[in-house]
Amino acid sequence: MNAAAYEHLLLAVDFAPETELVVRRAQQLKGQFEARLSLLHVVEHLPMSYSGDLVLPDDFDLEQELVDVAKKQMAALGKRLGVSAEDRHIEIGSTGRTILRLAAELNVDLVVLGSHGRHGLAALVGSTARTVLNGAGCDVLAVRIKE
Amino acid sequence: MNAAAYEHLLLAVDFAPETELVVRRAQQLKGQFEARLSLLHVVEHLPMSYSGDLVLPDDFDLEQELVDVAKKQMAALGKRLGVSAEDRHIEIGSTGRTILRLAAELNVDLVVLGSHGRHGLAALVGSTARTVLNGAGCDVLAVRIKE
């Protein structure tokens, strides 16, 4: 007796070029399992990496700007992967917790995300993967991102 | 362009009945990717869960006993999955670190292991999954073990 096929994958994307392999892996599994694929990009609330370095006009809404940029990138990625608009999600919040919440809401059976190792540049990604691994009610595939 | 197929999977097994789904998932991926599958069981050095409760004869080698039991279970599992004897590994040590070491030595591209969530009974399994996720140079699939 074999394991049940994965039916619904959730791919967490950040649109960075080095995460293309994560996207391709999700696309491959989607094909192999003939699964539904949902995409999620999380705009971190109050992104410190930006707010510390930039002097912004008072009326400049950084989060909204980031969401607008993400929408364009998400549209392009969704089109490329054949993911319909209803399965493309852009959320504002903590990346790890938002992935967990959406994974539960969509009742996916596999979350696919990128993960840097301990030698990685981005501690955030490792931390996100740990949060998701700890909290997810479903399987998690952490795709190693090569530096 | 698609992701490269996984060529060599390492499945960390503990022979517990509730981890059967983890085994089946690895078997399924082995078939889909036509990949080599290696099996690893780690006998924890000084297993505290036993040594605290048991009064053992002085000449009783608990580790060796556990290894002997594991050998029988590994033989049965290997036979069932069609994994040759050379791809069956039993090691003594820390589970997480041993998985990482063998994954590197065998140059596998995917580690498959079971993971309890934060509500899980076995904090050890979650901790192992975190160790492997943090340290692995390859992808990691954490298969959720249902309580």
First-last Cα distance of chain A: 39 Å
Shape of chain A: globular
| Proportion of residues in helical segments of chain A | 40-55%
Decide which structural class fits the backbone of chain A: alpha/beta
Gyration radius over CA of chain A = 16 Å
Keywords:
homodimer
What secondary-structure arrangement, pairings included, does this model have?
2 copies of one chain form a homodimer.
Chain A: E1 8-12, H1 20-33, E2 36-44, H2 48-51, H3 62-81, E3 88-93, H4 95-106, E4 110-115, H5 123-135, E5 139-144
Parallel strand pairs in A: 1-2, 1-4, 2-3, 4-5
Helix pairs in contact in A: 4-5
What does this structure look like?
Two copies of one chain form a homodimer. With 147 residues, chain A is α/β, with parallel strands linked by helices. The first copy, chain A, contains five helices and five strands. A five-stranded parallel β-sheet of chain A has the order 3-2-1-4-5, with helices on both faces. Chain A starts with 7 loop residues before the first strand and ends with a strand. At the A-B interface, helix 1, helix 5 and strand 5 of A face helix 1, helix 5 and strand 5 of B.
